[in-house]
Amino acid sequence: MTERILPAAGYRRIATEEAFITPELHQMYRDQIASGGIDDPGFISLMGYYLTSTSERATTVSERLQDLGARRLADMDAAGIDMQILSLTSPGVQVLKADIAVAMVRSANDQLAEAITRNPARFAGLVAIAPQNPAEAAKEIARGATRLGLKGVIINSHTQGEYLDNPKFWPIFEAAEASGLPVYLHPNTPPPKMIAPFLESGLDGAIYGFAVETGLHTLRLITQGVFDRFPKLTLVLGHLGEALPFWLSRLDYMHRGTVNSKRYDFMKPLQKKVSDYLRENVYYTTAGMGWEPAITFTQSVIGMHRVMYAMDYPYQYVPEEVSAQDALPISDADKKKFFQTTAEQVFRL
Amino acid sequence: MTERILPAAGYRRIATEEAFITPELHQMYRDQIASGGIDDPGFISLMGYYLTSTSERATTVSERLQDLGARRLADMDAAGIDMQILSLTSPGVQVLKADIAVAMVRSANDQLAEAITRNPARFAGLVAIAPQNPAEAAKEIARGATRLGLKGVIINSHTQGEYLDNPKFWPIFEAAEASGLPVYLHPNTPPPKMIAPFLESGLDGAIYGFAVETGLHTLRLITQGVFDRFPKLTLVLGHLGEALPFWLSRLDYMHRGTVNSKRYDFMKPLQKKVSDYLRENVYYTTAGMGWEPAITFTQSVIGMHRVMYAMDYPYQYVPEEVSAQDALPISDADKKKFFQTTAEQVFRL
Questions:
Q1: What would the 3-class secondary structure string for A276-287 be?
Q2: Residue A6: inside a domain, yes or no?
């Protein structure tokens, strides 16, 4: 028995950054944390907490992550969420050895497709990949798009300290562009060569480290010319773009200055301004940022049609934030874009 | 002969984050870079560029940094700046050995006081310190306040990878609070244990690394209880608070969650919300962020009376940004606060 706490709206509410985990990956994480098989202090701290802590937050999140049926649907009903776009939780398989990772994402994507088949009106999903093997990742994107009916690609920022501006990863972008799937660049804890001052102060995760790791990754993609090479590539960022909209003007000024100074030989002129890519190749979701001032700021400097709703279930299951976003000071037409039609267009639902 | 390009305004324009360098520190940086005496890749890359590049940007910045007289005054006149609050340029002496650093800031503060004496209507200044020696730093703050007439303390984020939330540095905050001087927390390039993914992509400096290093430092101070221990301490942040105003809601949510989860034993409950400290203990300047949307956003979520003008001379000497800020969509009374009276109050001018 669940009850919708919200009145029927003039739109469907599609939540676009919603996480799950497969039983196999859940077990693999636990085994790796127990055996010390993964040498990534951010992963060990964060997933070690969610999978082994007996705190209420950790056990509730862990249970909800594993459910792709009744419990999740009841939570969605209670919060007024019509559809979740599901993605394998961060860091997915990106911390694993390449061969295991490749096998595990195939299985995860199959299980995701089955869950969607059981509830096609309530779930859609993104293809998980193992960037460790770019050629296999490209194949999995094609398989996800054509055979599994998945609607985008989920990548959890760095892969064992490597970033997607490295051209060895570009078959992934080529496949995403060819399949017409957007790439959702989800946060990860910062890599070992960056995390120390965050981890020693407890700021490595969603409170701050996530944001700067993913903001950095996005800026690396832009400044290394990924969108000049793949102009039709669409990126989706959660958490209102990890604050990059706040920086548009400074990014343009400092990028122009850095290029002109020739301080780095690899920092080459781009076809457009940094802010142009952030306005033309990127969509933004409100995952974890159900706060009117930052939402309306982003809508204002990026564009109303590029900001979409997300909840970040189960990590931030706060039904009150749905009501708060229902009450945004924007027109009914824009609200329908925000909750429904922009997501339908971006993910081709 | 210089000409003011701006009409007389109903306020004095006080620029609050304006850099200079002493001849001794300039020479010391050059010597250290040449000899490899400083093991900080961010410093070597950034100051190596400004002090040795023959590019127009580098030579102009280097020349302007060294001038505390006619050239600087002419630039101020041309941009309509009535007063600069001067600070020894980042990273100051924080990269040097402690004994050299202590001697060098004394000399730098004396030279700064002399420059102010020569032009008391045009210059005020902040005390430079060597956090490497907290006891001496505390003494220098007291000397700066009482004998030199300086108006705040300048600290350039981390000191050789250490952050001021470490209680060994707290004599600095004690002295600042006792002297009634605000602490301007200026950016630095990220420390060796964080900088790798920024530096390899050319994003270590003002384009992004500065912001996250200083944002991280500020959050460390707040979450480790510095403002509970020193409730009258005032912090000043440039670059509109390094985007922290964008994160107010998420910081509160995630900090509460982290404390409740007991994930880190050192992340203890605070007396107030993270956003309370950002609204009650921190002032914000527009250094490098002369962009109306981000300025008005910050004024709106933090408070009109906590946002002040800064130029970031000579790094961002863009007179057009003064005109843009003269045209902010705020009342004349608020504009006078923004350009003049808030700075007069915070720095007790």
A1: HHHHHCEEEECC
A2: no
Q: Which of B337, B333, B338 is nearest to B322 (CA)?
A: B338
Is residue B348 within 8 A of residue B20, CB to CB? The reply is: no
pLDDT tens per residue across span B28-73:
999 999 999 999 999 999 998 888 888 888 899 999 999 999 999 9
Q: What is the mean pLDDT of residues A176-198?
A: 98
Q: Does B349 reside within a domain? A: no
Residue whose pair of structure tokens reads 């956090």 in the numeric block = B131
pLDDT digits 0-9 by tens, A227-251: 999 999 999 999 999 999 999 999 9
Spatial neighbors of A27 by CB under 8 A, at least 6 apart, are none
Domain with A103 in it: what CATH number? Answer: 3.20.20.140
User: Which comes out higher in pLDDT, residue B343 or A36?
Assistant: B343
Whether A1 is in a domain gets the answer no
Average pLDDT over residues A121-143: 98
Count of C-beta atoms within a 10 Å radius of residue B188: 26
* Total domain count, chain A: 1
Kindly state whether B161 is in contact with chain A, defined as any CB-CB distance less than 8 angstroms: yes
Evaluate whether residue B3 is within a structural domain: no
**Contact, B115 vs B67, CB < 8 A?**
no
Boundaries of domain holding A56: 14-344
The predicted complex's ipTM stands at 0.96
d(CA B5, CA B76): 10
Q: How far is CA A184 from CA A90, A239, A295, A337, B82, in A?
A: 12, 12, 19, 19, 48
> Are B205 and A258 inside 8 Å of each other by CB?
yes
Most A-contacting residue of B51, B52, B212, B217 (CB-CB within 10 A), to test interface: B212
Distance of CA B52 to the CA centre of its chain: 24
**Closest residue in chain B to residue A289, using alpha carbons only:** B250
Give the gap in angstroms from C-alpha A185 to the nearest C-alpha of chain B: 17
> Which secondary structure element, helix H or strand E, spans residue A223, and what is its range?
helix A209-223
| Kind of pairing between the strands at B282-285 and B235-237 | parallel
Do A220 and A165 form a contact (C-beta atoms < 8 A)?
Answer: yes
Residue of A nearest to B205 (CA): A254
In A91-150, the residues whose Cβ lies within 8 Å of chain B are none
